[in-house]
Amino acid sequence: MMRTVFYVVSIITSLVVASIALFWPPFWWALAIVVPFILLGIYDIHWAAHNVLRNYPVVGHLRYALEFISPEIRQYFVETNESGKPYNRLQRDLVYARAAGTVETQPFGTQLDLMETGYLRASHSLSPKKVSPKEARIVVGGPQCKKPYTASRLNISAMSFGALSSNAIHALNAGAKIGNFAHNTGEGGLSPYHLAGGGDIIWQIGTGYFGCRAADGNFDEEKFVENANRDVVKMIEIKLSQGAKPAHGGVLPAAKVDKEIARIRGVAVGKDVISPPAHTAFDSPEGLMQFVQKLRDLTGGKPVGFKLCIGARHEFMGIVKAMLKTGITPDFITVDGAEGGTGAAPAEFTNRLGVPINEGLAFVHSCLVGAGVRKDIRVIASGKVVTGFDIVEKVALGADMCNVARPMLFALGCIQAVRCNTNTCPTGIATQDAKRAQAVDINRRQHGVASFHAATVESFLDLVGAMGLTTPEELTPGHIHQRVADQTELSYGKIQEYLQPGELLTDDIREAYRNHWEKAQAESFNQNLAKVSEHAG
């Protein structure tokens, strides 16, 4: 009934306006308004793709207009300081303040619900200590590494040129130079913009082998040697998987693949760049360890490691078994969380696959301890690190250092518009639109990146001292407390189950790890299906 009334009123109104305009020349301008709406209404009724527009022509467009700006409406007017996702307003404002070097203190008490399930805290000491600034750095490089690297406890996580604009990459690298920390290239290759600022580089090698890619898409040893032996490249990271899309290759939408991106990556212009889900240079845990050693040899002994998001636990344990079998250990392992990252990814992969960072981090650390190889390997936590407390938490769980991605984008001016995969980023950060990219002022934003890094690391060391410790190495899972569902607290030492040193090398392995260890194979990432059924889960 309402639809019919709407049609009748619209037709009568249009006829009245048209009649007046025809017989009263001064009113002819009204036709310029009415006629387009009439034509739009006819199109909506007969050919519109949306059902709503066919039933409610013209006026139905208001729904889609409001839907288009609904993310901004929610962010600016609806969300509370704590409710924003994936980063809330409190977190974003803290990064903005630290990047700008402005006041970052908080008045009138905490805005967090201290009794909320999942709330994390640490206990302070009545005998606080002063932690040496030297503790802000740590050496990466095991016994098989000839060129160890002294890294910051906080570095820029993997973000490719292509996913980010040239100005954004340049500003990040220049900020890393100012702050004396490292910049991970992401899997998109070592671009001129990663080298422009002179900052230390962690070169990530993904399944697409961009930057060391042969014509057939496989690993090219000569191209690798050419780039990896640059003085600015300090570490090599083999990407097995990432939290945003575990078991799925990297995705760079066609809209971002211009001539420059295509040249750097060795791909076709204007087509989606989807990396294979798995490497072709190796297909087993043993092969991975041999590839680690190969890259280390090709670089003259630079630190080489790998990055992964934990999924099937026996597969990581298979890698640990391969370390024991081959005698080869990586210099570092970067643990990514299923919380996701900056890259474009299928929704189901982002939302439903992978282990969250804290659980995955604790598992990796525990396995390395249980196998007796932890002392030779640095563990890097990559995911949901914004504040000094986040670094404390990750180190307590088993990390040596942290990588951070999205907060570094906030330091560049990101407003969490969540348009990273559309090439229409309003801040010019996650786009290949040259005009949009000019919005990133390299000279200004590099200092914001360095300032955010320095303030966050300083906060981390201050918190360690406030807990009565003299070094981050003293942090343990027992130092971090989480409120659980029954309104009590448990330390991470009680929530996560940790192996004793060398426990995996004995016959007395605790239940939480035993089945996974028995299924693990150094020879293959896969396993016998009957064995899977027997030890399901």
Tell me the layout of helices and strands.
Elements: H1 2-23, H2 29-47, H3 51-55, H4 61-68, H5 70-78, H6 89-100, E1 120-122, E2 137-140, E3 149-152, E4 154-156, H7 166-179, E5 182-184, H8 192-196, E6 200-205, H9 221-228, E7 233-239, E8 251-252, H10 259-265, E9 273-274, H11 285-298, E10 304-309, H12 313-326, E11 332-336, H13 347-352, H14 357-371, E12 378-382, H15 388-397, E13 401-404, H16 406-412, H17 434-437, H18 442-466, E14 480-483, E15 489-491, H19 492-495, H20 511-519, H21 529-534
Parallel strand pairs: 4-13, 5-6, 6-7, 7-10, 10-11, 11-12, 12-13
Antiparallel strand pairs: 1-14, 2-3, 8-9, 14-15
Helix pairs in contact: 1-2, 6-16, 6-18, 7-18, 11-12, 12-14, 12-20, 15-18, 16-18
